[in-house]
Each structure stands twice: as C-alpha cells, then as structure tokens.
Design the sequence.
C-alpha cells in the first residue's frame, strides 16, 4: 500500500491546471481568480473636486479674511455634485459647491461653509486658506495607468470598488473547475422518495457537492446509480469529456458489489493506485480515463469525506490554481483523550480552536455522520499510536 503523500504526488503529477478563461461582468467576479493585469483607464477622481460643502474662489481674494474682518465675495453660481458649470470664477467672485462638485475654472481653493456666513447673493468669508487648499485633485486617488488588479489575484470587494470607480466593467478570470459526481449503491435512495426496507438516503452526494461548491468547483454532473457496472460505465463515458475531474463514491472495496474495479477495467481506464495506508477510506481508487482524473472514494460517509479532503481537495487546488484550496496543517495540543489504538495512520474528526484540540462528539465510526457537525479539523494520527492523551501534541489538517 502506498502512503497518502505518495498517492497525492501521483495525482498531482497527472493533473494539468485548467487554462480556460472567461470574461465576466464585475458583479459576478467576487472570489474569482484574475488572469490579467488591469490598469486604470482613467484618473480617479476624473476631475478636481471639492471634499466638502462650501465655496470655491481665488485664495488671493480672501487672503486678508478673519472673524473680525470678513471678506465679502459675490456669488456667481451654485454647483451641485454631478453638474458641469461652464463659467469661470473671476476675481472678487465665488461659487457655492458641494462635496463631490467639480472645482470651477478660475478657483484655486475651497472654504468650508462653516467658515462663512453661508450667504446667497453675497458671501462673507471668516478665514483665509492657501491656494490649492481643500481640493481633491484629479488622479489623486488612482492615476490613469496604475495597476489595480494583478494576474493571479483573488478578486475582492475592494477590487470591485476600485475597478468600478474607473469604469472597468468586466474581468478576465480563470474558469471554475467542472466536476462530475456519481454515487453508487443499490441501497441509496434519493431525497423525496420513501425509504424502503434496507435502504438509506444518499448523503454523500449532498456532502461532496456542497463541499465542492464551497471550494469553488462547479459540480456540473450529478448522478446516483445502482451497483450496475454497465450503467455506471455509461454515465462516466457520457460525462467525462465535459468535466475536469470525476468523483465517485462507493463500491471500491473487495465485496461482491464493489463494482468500481470492473467499471474501470471495462472503461479501459489506467489505474494510478488502489488503497492507501490510512483510515478511514483505505480502498480509495484513482485512475485516468480519457485524460481525466477519476477519483473513486469509499462509500462510508466519513471515509468519503476524508478521501475527498486529503486527495480531492489537493486535486482541485492543482486544477484551479486557487491558493485558498491549499491544505493547511497546524499543530495543536489535545484537550481530550482518544483511546482507540491506531495500527495504521488514522484521521480523526476534531474541533480545533486556538491551538487546543477536542475530539468531535458522537460516534467516530467511518459510517457515522453526526460527528461531522462542528468538526473543523482532522487529527493526523501516526500508525502505531496507542491512543492520545490530554496534553499530547498532534498535527491536524484544517477543513
Ligand atoms: P461501499 O463503499 O459501497 O461498500 O459502502 C460502504 C457503506 O457506506 C455502506 O454502509 C453504504 O450503505 C454506505 N454508503 C455508500 N454510499 C453512500 C452514500 N452515497 N450515502 C450514504 N451512505 C453511503
Ligand atoms: Mg456499495
């Protein structure tokens, strides 16, 4: 049996990052990865503007103004934000302006309303200001040509604001990973159908589809199939060319109805590995079929989940180039005991917080689901471990 690390390396060697790109509108771009540098096509602000409500005039005209000796100027215009006034402020005149208004020609300073008598026809100024004072200059925030989005960046809301401010409405981003997902099992029942004797509802489909959505992949084909080699072959043959990666769950062990071996052989897929030395999810099976990676996970829900986090997620990481998908390992100290021996390497559901580790409550069997709730990390326990005690140092994979 190979190790998890060998299995991961084998998978990653087979995967080519996707190169498809897509030009999308700004409102859809949040969280996507830019594949181009974007430079500001205009200055921001696009014109000299006022940062406050007040009056625009020539600084020289009010150089002598004070509370005791106000200077009076004639009001030539009122210029609200968004309005272009074609006039010029001549010596001895002023214009009422608002926050965001264009500074009129001829004016070289702004005085805030509170430092005047707020006059209409004539305005008394109680202070002097320097030339250029209280003006927010064209291009002061963003100079035309400044790089505002870099190739490889994750588009954030801040990018959206900056891009929108300079009128850039579309971004070229890397396409999302397209994934296929198929669960196999004669016992599986779809939601909405009554549960017959001996059957269970299909939970893997929801778990993995939800997780992939979480990780930025589009599950574009989703199937629930019987343990029927021909049916499963037909689905994979039909879907494989439209996806970047295909996941299955169930049927990878050694039982009579563990059909995935027969499926892969019938498809003529090239097996990369079967079985890795860890628990749960030992019998995970990986193959290449028509140049796509087929990852066949164990059917037991926690085994499927562990297989997916440890092998599927790194595969999505390589395909998408999305750095956020990189597996994060941390060290922690046990608050709880875990009494089970681990002859083989084992991953255990845990709750990790500020360096402390608790065992997730409820059953830890690989078929148990409830302990997934609230679990945010997997403890990576070495093979040969007699169990864990409070105070033990452990390594974890964050979910
Ligand atoms: P298998 O890997 O097919 O041998 O299945 C192992 C165990 O996981 C069995 O108890 C199955 O009933 C269960 N199982 C398989 N697939 C699913 C699924 N999609 N959702 C929930 N449980 C499953
Ligand atoms: Mg089965």
Sequence:
């Amino acid at each position: 049996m190979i190790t998890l690390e060998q299995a991961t390396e084998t998978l990653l060697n087979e995967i080519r990052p996707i190169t498809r790109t897509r030009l999308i509108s700004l409102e859809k771009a949040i969280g996507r990865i830019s594949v181009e540098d974007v430079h500001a096509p205009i200055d921001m602000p696009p014109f000299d503007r006022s940062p406050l409500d007040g009056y625009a005039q020539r600084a020289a005209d009010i150089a002598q103004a004070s509370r005791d000796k106000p200077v009076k100027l004639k009001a030539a215009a009122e210029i609200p934000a968004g309005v272009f006034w074609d006039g010029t402020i001549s010596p001895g005149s002023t214009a009422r302006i608002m926050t965001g208004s264009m500074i009129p020609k001829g004016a070289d300073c702004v005085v805030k309303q509170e430092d005047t008598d707020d006059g209409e026809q004539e305005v008394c100024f109680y202070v002097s200001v320097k030339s250029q004072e209280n003006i927010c200059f064209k291009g002061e925030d963003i100079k035309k040509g400044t790089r505002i989005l870099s190739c490889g960046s994750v588009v954030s809301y801040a990018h959206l604001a900056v891009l929108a401010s300079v009128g850039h409405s579309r971004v070229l981003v890397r396409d999302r990973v397209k994934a296929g997902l198929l669960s196999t099992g004669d016992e599986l029942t779809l939601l909405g159908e009554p549960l017959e004797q001996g059957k269970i509802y299909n939970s893997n489909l929801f778990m993995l589809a939800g997780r992939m959505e979480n990780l930025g992949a589009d599950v574009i084909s989703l199937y629930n199939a019987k343990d029927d080699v021909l049916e499963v072959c037909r689905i994979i043959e039909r879907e494989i060319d439209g996806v970047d990666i295909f996941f299955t769950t169930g049927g990878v062990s050694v039982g009579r109805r563990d059909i995935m071996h027969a499926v892969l052989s019938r498809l003529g897929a090239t097996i990369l590995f079967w079985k890795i030395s860890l628990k749960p999810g030992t019998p995970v099976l990986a193959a290449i079929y028509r140049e796509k990676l087929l990852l066949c996970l164990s059917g037991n829900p926690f085994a499927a989940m562990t297989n997916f986090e440890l092998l599927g997620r790194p595969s999505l990481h390589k395909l998408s180039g999305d750095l956020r998908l990189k597996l994060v390992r941390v060290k922690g100290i046990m608050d709880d005991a875990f009494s089970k021996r681990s002859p083989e390497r084992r991953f255990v559901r845990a709750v990790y917080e500020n360096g402390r580790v608790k065992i997730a409550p409820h059953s830890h069997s690989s078929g148990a689901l409830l302990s997934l709730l609230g679990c945010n990390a997997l403890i990576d326990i070495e093979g040969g471990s007699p169990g864990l005690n409070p105070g033990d140092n452990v390594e974890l994979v964050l979910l």
The chain has a mean pLDDT of 97. The first helix runs from residue 4 to 14. The two ends are 25 Å apart (CA to CA). Residues 183, 185, 187-188, 200, 202-205, 249-251, 253, 255, 298-301, 367 surround adenosine monophosphate (ligand 1) (CB under 6 Å).
